[in-house]
Amino acid sequence: MLPTINEIIDQKFSNKREYPDLEGERIINRELSWMEFNQRVLEEAQDSTNPLYERLNFLAITCSNLDEHFMVRVASLYNLIEAGSEKKDPANLTPSEQLEALMARCHEFYKDQYVTFNKQIMPALQAEDIYYLTIDQITDAEYDYLAKYYDDNIYPVLTPLAVDAGRPFPLIPNQNLNLFVTFETQEEKADALESTFFAIVEVPSILPRLIKLPGEEKRFVLIEAVIAEFLNQLFYNQEIESTACFRVMRNADYELDDEEISDLMIEMEGILWQRERGSIIRLEIQREAGKKILNTLQSLMDVSDQAVFRIRGPIDLKFVDEIRDLYPDSNLRYKKFNGQITPAFGSERDPDTFEIIRDNDLILHHPFESFDPTIKVIQQAAQDPDVLAIKQTLYRVSGNSPIVKALAEAAENGKHVMVLLELKARFDEESNIHWARRLERAGCHVIYGLKGLKTHSKITLIVRREESGIKRYVHLGTGNYNDITARIYTDFGLWTASEQIGQDATDFFNMISGYSIPMGWRKIIPAPRWLRKETLARIKQEKKHAEAGRQAIIVAKINSLIDSEIIEELYSASQAGVKICLIVRGICGLKAGVKGLSENIEVRSLVGRFLEHSRIFYYYNDGREDIFLSSADWMPRNLDRRVEILFPIEDEGCRERVLEVLIYQMLDTDRARIMQGDGSYIRFRDQTPVEERVDSQIALMQSALRAAEEVRQRPINFNRYEPLSAPENF
Description:
The chain has 730 residues and is of the alpha/beta class. Among the domains are: 8-27 and 527-713, Endonuclease, Chain A, CATH 3.30.870; 353-523, Endonuclease, Chain A (2-Layer Sandwich). The strands form four sheets. Strands 14, 18, 19, 20, 21, 23, 24, 25, 26 and 27 form a ten-stranded mixed β-sheet that branches. The longest helix is centred in the N-terminal third of the chain and has 33 residues, at 95-127.
């Protein structure tokens, strides 16, 4: 039997220990805290207890994470510096100071990343007889194979771009690999190539980066090495002097002046065009590249020294994740797990989903439970003649979204369908423009977003005509309506027929589609107007309980915590005696366990098989134990610049499910890292005997499997009777 949150808190804070004094500022810089999160992901790639192919995946994730961080967060610092801003952040750093500290940390991270690849991942691959080779390591037969492969597959799609007096330096695509090629000339300068000519060859991203060598052995090379080897076929009558592989990252941060925009979709299409032409904020280049090549690239692209990363290995390690597909091996991956059908939806062969939701609130916990029931409810609503209207917010959807298809079908069936599809969802703008047009063609009323705000809330309203009158069914979630990410992100979804939540949902959609602003709410708490006030009030309420000598507890599971006002309120609550457990996956600006400041606060971060994405808030409230779920983190953007929803969990069965998750995560000793007083993290596993370790994600998988097995053991509630066949030899 699991302990209660109260019991866990008592155990956590009962042991007397020495707390360090505060060093530096009270709040940790956002960018540096994010780098520590990416370091924790890299630790999973370094962890030899993880299956090898999963280690490759974690390494690839650190690369894609860092790419996005540069395009948005580093880019925003460049923008502030260019605008002349000297405004200090909550950690008391100016934009220039932040950029300097962040770039220094990034250089350290790159070194660690490539040590991981060269010293740990490569030997581990070789131990499984998988070999990444350079051209000088292959056999003559393999060389002949690559020569033919180049002629047949690569050469036809290459476009050499010469640069000289008559041909200007070309636009270098964002994130693409390129080869810089120099040629032998009579005239040379010591430090630049301005007196000669050179060429750029873009590595075609349309072709596979990994080239599998023939034979039964698992040997492969990278496409850029093959192109470099056969460049002489691309440049006839030229003596190639040197080549270097490089990649650039462009500024992808943008601001919209909503007051000046007449058509948001056209504006977003223009921004996508501009993104490919943003200023260059990072240059990755082979460590072996000569000084002349580097100086020329820096000069032509206006790249500072701190933005140059000289790479000891292949550039852009995201390719390692493709090895899993090149040489499939289930023994090198996590044991397969499929999300289970929740017992309520699995009790009948063809359940009436509306009847199920009408009887009780239902909560789904992904990916431990399948996202399919949510898809099925919306598909059933699209076809049900009694459904009058469907309203939904969409932020990020999958490339072949069954949700979007169901909404389009509903509109084609004559139902009123309103969709707020957020065109400003970062890096999903192009996909969302496509889906917006698809929905409009089907007859849906599509809202592209709201002026000055991003709509990040996850809510669906289904209006149905029933014998008793009009009935509203509502889905509220912590994660996107995305059937792909629902398999790898941990999120909650609540289905309810609560009349009060239904009324709130109606008011919410009227607010975002019209000019109506409700005077108040019955159950849900939206941002930006109400959520900050509610959050601060809840923290202050626990503080009052502590000051009155009563038990006071706050547990919050979130992705990020950087809001200064909330951090200071948590510090104040801690000093009053409130026991606070924060489960923060990513950025955390709060310093935990500091003498006189945050002695009653524990911060833990969980990184594991699934991406922790749900937001859960628990307030003890003198024994009432108020539980909320939300789409929002404790960040200024969520509280002040986004449309979000916080919603209560009141059904007893649903409350038990959410509490189970919090308890397992508070007990986790295997995936948890605990923040120290200086803002660093230590892995709990290193302090815990093997027999006492708890992996919360494994525990929740086992719980879902047990619940599904119980359903399979029950007699099915048949709605028809079928005779048995006669036994053999009867």
